């Protein structure tokens, strides 16, 4: 295939990757595969007491002298070194560290970079020695970087590292090097069972402070003497593993900018959350090597045995005479190793990704799909009740699955339950998912088995569309989203007119862009049955989209609530922080630009700031005036669609400050809990049921609270949309506060009457 370079997203990147690949081939096959990277362990002692490493238990031992390092580096094995990473132990404990850097700069003429990683415990010592090493590198015109170990914010880091006060010293060093020097500075976070649910807070911190870092999963590594640390290393239960999947997706899409490291994060996510083998290579398979402080040579730190000692034997001889051992490591250990060794993105990987993206963009181009669909006849409208339809053997459910909120999960339960309640239930039910690992977890939370999850925009998805007897667009709003394209694809590419196509339990809007209005209109036209969840959506569908025979019914999520109320799903409570206290349960979300409507960017940002400030003051007021603890719970825990936990952490800090400013709290202990874990639909309902008051902002939190018949206050982030329509339909508009009510401070007057109307005190 001839590739038109002008069509590439980044011709400069492509050119760079081609040069990189040529250089790699040249080094491996022309120069004999000489190492280009050296991991130099300058000592084997440490002043930290990390959970994932037991080097700190070692006593001072043999360490190569600077002159011995000079002799080691004289071996021809190291004549092509381009980068040396200095670590330990704790490398800054060596008083002669500067001399080591001098030798590295002098003996490796092709060096393109030197780096060091430190625990930052001895603030002044670390600062002075790293500055001295930096000056040496500068004198030799060799780029230098520093990484500071930080495994969490505050006490979280101190616990993992076993040293109280370590976070404070480390963060001061990080800020000093980043802000007051020209040294490229980053942090390194190692994730163990201890900090698994707190590392998100470190990511928030990094984004807020605009500092860069890398995140890795602790691995069993021979040189760290940690093979017995099974309580901390890769000891994650299923919920923790899923949570890490969410984290590494966020890191890949919302933090990391390097294509190479994005690829690493994608690999880690798949390994830890999906149980897949390692899918990326490793530089230690061919181009990197390790030398310990005793002069021992290793192929890699995690699994390599000591191959020989470079103080007594030729490094080249040791390296080349043991290649079978390296082959054995690659064959037996590499596929399960989760250590964050990075394999650069290759040109062919980049090209393949570009071609796949181009292919997908063409196949799912909305304009092309609309041309195709308009050549099809309108569907014959028939019954809209899923459980009364003559069953089909193979049913495909499409929608925004893979990004589902708790409400969407409840809807999915309802759809599948109705399908399986038919007198002749389908033999196969498939769910199309944008992110299958998310939907698989959803099905597990709902205790639904024997459902096939297919990834959207894949050949498997297209096969499922062509083979389906029935296709259901299940739940979620039909709104201004590009991913409407796969729904239109499914409805317009179903194998024959005998395929039943349904819209079940959806809302409509926000819907403003012409191409998406036209797309939703076509999806409705091609549907045999359309059942919408509210009268406002039905009205819009009939008046604006020319829909016919549109039915309106309760949101399908209500079926799941009834199932819960009947006591059939209370068995697996996992998150319930205030079992014996009265509390305010908050189900908040960030107010997004997509619901700002007529506001320009500046006015939106100003009102958003005012809204968040007043929201925290309102929560603090309710807590103090009613003597309630505060429980912040997420209805959504995935970066795509807005992870509520991120917003909750931000709000939680401000509520604490607001309460402290008042200074009259009579409640003992910590009065705010902010869920760090993904919370299941059942646990959301449990927390709602036990709350004294619920503050609801997510649409389905309002619906849940109403159907549970519990006291609640609703915040209409939709500005006159689905929440207001729902409350008017229930005669509960007096429970509602608007964005404007809160941002303007009018809540102070309204909250009094709302609380009185709830009659809970």
Q: Tell me the strand order in the biggest sheet.
A: 6-5-4-3-2-1-7-8-9
State the shape. globular
- Return the CATH class of the largest domain: Alpha Beta
What's the architecture of the largest domain, going by CATH?
A: Alpha-Beta Barrel
Summarize this structure briefly.
The protein is of the alpha/beta class and 761 residues long.
Structure characterization notes:
This protein has 3 domains: 29-345, TIM Barrel; 362-565, Rossmann fold (3-Layer(aba) Sandwich), CATH 3.40.50.2000; 583-758, Rossmann fold (3-Layer(aba) Sandwich). Helix 8 (238-254) runs antiparallel to helix 9 (259-274), helix 14 packs across helix 20 and helix 21 (601-626) packs across helix 22 (644-662). The protein is globular. The strands form 3 sheets. The protein has a 9-stranded mixed beta sheet, covered by helices on one side. Strands 10, 11, 12, 13, 14, 15, 16 and 17 form an 8-stranded parallel beta sheet that branches. A 6-stranded parallel beta sheet has the order 20-19-18-21-22-23, sandwiched between helices. The chain is built from 27 helices and 23 strands. Strand 1, helix 2 and strand 2 (83-87) form a beta-alpha-beta unit. The protein is α/β, with parallel strands linked by helices and 761 residues long.
């Amino acid at each position: 295939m001839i590739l038109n370079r002008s069509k590439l997203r980044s011709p400069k990147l492509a050119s760079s990757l081609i040069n990189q690949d040529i250089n790699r081939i040249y080094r491996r096959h022309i120069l004999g595969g000489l190492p280009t990277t050296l991991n130099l362990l300058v000592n084997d002692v440490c002043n930290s007491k990390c959970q994932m490493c037991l080097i700190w238990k070692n006593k001072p031992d043999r360490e190569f002298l600077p002159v011995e390092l000079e002799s080691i580096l004289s071996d021809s094995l190291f004549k092509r070194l381009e980068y040396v990473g200095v670590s330990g132990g704790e490398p800054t404990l060596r008083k002669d560290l500067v001399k080591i850097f001098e030798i590295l700069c002098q003996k490796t003429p092709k060096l393109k970079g030197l780096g060091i990683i430190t625990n930052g415990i001895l603030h002044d010592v670390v600062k002075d020695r790293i500055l001295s090493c930096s000056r040496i590198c500068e004198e030799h015109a060799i780029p230098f970087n520093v990484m500071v170990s930080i495994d969490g914010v505050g006490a979280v880091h101190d616990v993992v590292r076993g040293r109280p006060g370590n976070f404070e010293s480390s963060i001061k060093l990080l800020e000093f090097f980043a802000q007051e020097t020209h040294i490229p500075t980053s942090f390194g976070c190692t994730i163990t069972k201890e900090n698994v649910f707190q590392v998100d807070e470190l990511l928030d911190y990094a984004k807020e402070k605009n500092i860069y870092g890398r995140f890795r999963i602790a691995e069993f590594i021979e040189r760290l003497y940690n093979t017995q640390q099974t309580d901390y290393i890769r000891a994650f239960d299923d919920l923790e593993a899923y949570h890490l999947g969410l984290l590494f997706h966020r890191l890949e899409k919302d933090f990391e900018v390097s294509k190479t490291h994005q690829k690493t994060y994608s690999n880690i996510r798949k390994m830890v959350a999906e149980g897949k083998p390692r899918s990326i290579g490793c530089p230690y398979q061919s181009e990197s090597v390790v030398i310990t402080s005793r002069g021992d040579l290793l192929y890699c730190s995690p699994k390599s045995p000591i191959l020989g000692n470079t103080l007594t034997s030729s490094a080249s001889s040791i390296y080349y005479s043991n290649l079978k051992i390296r082959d054995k490591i690659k064959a037996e250990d590499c596929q399960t190793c989760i250590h964050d060794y990075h394999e650069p993105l290759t040109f062919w990987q980049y090209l393949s990704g570009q071609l796949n993206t181009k292919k997908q963009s063409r196949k799912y181009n909305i304009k092309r799909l609309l041309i195709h669909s308009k050549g099809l006849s309108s569907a014959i409208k028939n019954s809209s009740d899923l459980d009364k339809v003559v069953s089909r053997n193979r049913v495909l459910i499409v929608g925004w699955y893979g990004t589902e909120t708790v409400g969407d999960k409840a809807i999915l339960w309802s759809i599948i339950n109705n399908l399986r309640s038919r007198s002749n239930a389908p033999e196969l039910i498939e769910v199309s998912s944008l992110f299958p690992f998310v939907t698989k977890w959803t099905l597990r939370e709902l205790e639904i088995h024997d459902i096939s999850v297919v990834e959207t925009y894949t050949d498997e998805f297209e096969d499922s569309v062509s083979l389906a007897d029935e296709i259901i667009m299940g739940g979620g709003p039909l709104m201004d989203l590009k991913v409407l394209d796969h729904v239109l694809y499914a409805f317009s590419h179903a194998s024959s007119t005998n395929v039943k196509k349904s819209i079940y339990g959806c809302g409509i809007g926000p819907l403003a862009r012409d191409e998406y209005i036209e797309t939703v209109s076509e999806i409705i036209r091609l549907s045999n049955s359309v059942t919408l969840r509210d009268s406002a959506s039905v009205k819009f569908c009939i008046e604006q989209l020319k829909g016919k025979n549109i039915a309106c019914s309760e949101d399908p999520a209500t079926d799941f609530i009834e199932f819960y109320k009947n006591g059939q799903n209370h068995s697996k409570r996992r998150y319930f922080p205030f079992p014996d206290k009265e509390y305010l349960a908050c189900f908040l979300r960030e107010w997004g630009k997509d619901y700002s409507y007529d506001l320009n960017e500046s006015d939106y940002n100003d009102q958003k700031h005012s809204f968040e400030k007043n929201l925290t003051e309102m929560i603090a007021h309710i807590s103090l005036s009613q003597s309630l603890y505060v429980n912040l719970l997420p209805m959504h825990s995935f970066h795509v669609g807005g992870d509520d936990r991120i917003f909750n952490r931000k709000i939680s800090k401000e509520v604490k400050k607001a309460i402290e400013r008042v200074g009259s709290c009579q409640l003992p202990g910590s009065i705010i809990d902010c869920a760090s874990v993904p919370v299941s639909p059942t646990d959301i309902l449990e927390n709602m049921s036990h709350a004294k008051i619920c503050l609801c902002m997510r649409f389905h939190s309002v619906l849940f609270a109403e159907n549970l018949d519990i006291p609640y206050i609703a915040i209409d982030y939709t500005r006159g949309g689905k929440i207001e329509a729902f409350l008017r339909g229930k005669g509960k508009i007096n429970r509602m506060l608007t964005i404007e009510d809160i941002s303007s401070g009018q809540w102070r007057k309204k909250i009094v009457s709302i609380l009185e109307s709830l009659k809970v005190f």
